[in-house]
């Protein structure tokens, strides 16, 4: 593999057998996964001042800021990336590299979530931003194909939950549903901004038979998840780890609350991001992260990186942490990957083809971890 086009993910040993496993990434923010060198180059082109101009020092600044425990400092990291993603050329480059970095991580299907409303500072329209990102994603897929690599990708169009544009953004997603956009999300500050504030948008998407995932159960608890699932028609939950607050379970024994039972019984997928959850306080550490207990109870957990730049992570690194710190084995990783593929916002025949032709054979042929 060309290491310039497909650089080994940060924090991953190039010889790690987990790197070769086929992966599915359902929760990966476009503005949280830029290459540091790209941020430096794009900032120089538009005159944006960065806290560091050396790519490696900038990489360290991003991860240290995200690890600081200071929410203001954490949010400042996105100020830096969004500032350099305001032109068609920048959006196309970032999206192209986003795809290539997925390939380098062994990802065979990935959904890029991002909020077009944050990329209008230089005069772009909402539709132009989506088209620019799709152009980059198409280029990335084509470059991967030339290198003999297979990857499928889709855009998850996101509305900001503290704003009042969700209906407009839902309409945007529907306009591009046959041109690369596969689903809709809301993101941003969860506390004080419930998904139910945006029921008009979610009702419209529901009536249009359009897939929805909603950030819930990260900064807020069970009520946030309840609103996302029951009032807003979420087919997947972004994070969702605080569902453990609706259960009284010790060592796999105990009782589940009504919502916890509903999510388990219907196998509603949880897009879990262990490292990010530790940074935001949804979990104390990877070692005692709820994901393992949820897996053991039979919840449909998936493994995701969230913001690869800010968390200095990738799907491979998240898997390595679960193996080394939580006792996961290759069968667990395959189960989570198959679960993710089964719940990707793709037609059934495409999901089944990827499972039969890529994911299941890929795990079968892999070196045991």
Architecture overview:
The protein is of the alpha/beta class. 46% of the residues lie in helices and 14% in strands. A hairpin with a 2-residue loop joins strand 7 and strand 8. The longest helix has 21 residues, at 126-146. The chain is globular.
In short:
With 369 residues, the protein is α/β, with parallel strands linked by helices. 46% of the residues lie in helices and 14% in strands.
Distance between the termini: 22 Å
SSE topology string = EHHHHEHEHEHEHEEEHEHHEHHH
Gyration radius, in Å: 19 Å
Strand order of the largest sheet: 1-2-3-4
Name the beta content range: 5-15%
Instruction: List low-confidence stretches.
Output: none
Q: Percent range for helical residues? A: 40-55%
| Secondary structure tally, helices | 14
Mean pLDDT: 95
Shape: globular
Number of distinct beta strands: 10
Q: Find the structural class using helix and strand composition.
A: alpha/beta
Main sheet specs:
4 strands, parallel
Search tags:
369 residues; alpha/beta; four-stranded parallel beta sheet; 14 helices; 46% helix
How are the SSEs ordered, and which strands pair?
Elements: E1 23-29, H1 36-46, H2 55-66, H3 71-83, H4 88-104, E2 107-114, H5 126-146, E3 152-160, H6 166-175, E4 181-187, H7 199-207, E5 213-216, H8 222-231, E6 236-239, E7 247-250, E8 253-256, H9 258-265, E9 270-272, H10 274-280, H11 290-297, E10 301-303, H12 315-326, H13 330-342, H14 348-365
Parallel strand pairs: 1-2, 2-3, 3-4, 5-6, 6-9, 9-10
Antiparallel strand pairs: 7-8
Helix pairs in contact: 1-2, 4-5, 6-7, 13-14
């Amino acid at each position: 593999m060309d290491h310039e086009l497909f650089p080994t993910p940060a924090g991953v040993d190039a010889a790690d057998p987990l790197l070769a496993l086929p992966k599915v990434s359902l929760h990966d923010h476009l503005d949280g996964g830029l290459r540091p060198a790209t941020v430096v180059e794009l900032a120089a082109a538009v005159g944006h001042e960065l806290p560091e101009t050396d790519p490696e020092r900038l990489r360290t600044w991003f991860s240290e800021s995200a690890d600081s425990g200071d929410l203001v400092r954490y949010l400042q990291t996105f100020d830096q990336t969004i500032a350099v993603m305001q032109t068609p050329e920048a959006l196309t480059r970032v999206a192209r590299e986003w795809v290539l970095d997925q390939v380098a991580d062994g990802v065979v299907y990935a959904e890029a979530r991002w909020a077009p409303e944050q990329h209008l500072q230089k005069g772009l329209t909402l539709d132009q931003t989506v088209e620019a990102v799709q152009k980059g994603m198409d280029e990335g897929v084509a470059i991967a194909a030339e290198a003999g690599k297979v990857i499928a990708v889709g855009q998850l169009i996101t509305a900001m939950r503290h704003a009042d544009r969700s209906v407009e953004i839902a309409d945007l997603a529907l306009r591009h549903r046959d041109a690369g956009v596969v689903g809709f999300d809301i993101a941003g500050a969860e506390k004080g901004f419930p998904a139910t504030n945006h029921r008009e948008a979610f009702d419209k998407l529901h009536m249009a038979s359009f897939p929805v995932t909603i950030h819930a159960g990260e900064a807020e608890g069970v009520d946030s998840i309840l609103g996302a699932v029951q009032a807003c028609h979420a087919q997947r939950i972004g994070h969702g780890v605080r569902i453990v607050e609706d259960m009284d379970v010790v060592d796999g024994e105990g009782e589940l609350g009504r919502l916890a039972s509903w999510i388990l019984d219907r196998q509603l997928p949880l897009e879990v991001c262990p490292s990010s959850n530790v940074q935001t306080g949804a979990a104390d550490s990877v070692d005692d992260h709820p994901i393992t207990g949820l897996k053991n109870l039979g919840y449909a957990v998936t493994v995701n990186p969230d913001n690869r730049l800010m968390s200095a992570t990738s799907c491979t690194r998240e898997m390595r942490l679960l193996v080394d710190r939580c006792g996961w084995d290759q069968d667990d990783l395959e189960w989570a990957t198959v679960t993710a593929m089964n719940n990707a916002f793709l037609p059934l025949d495409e999901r089944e083809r990827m499972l039969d032709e890529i994911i299941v054979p890929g795990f079968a042929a892999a070196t045991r971890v």
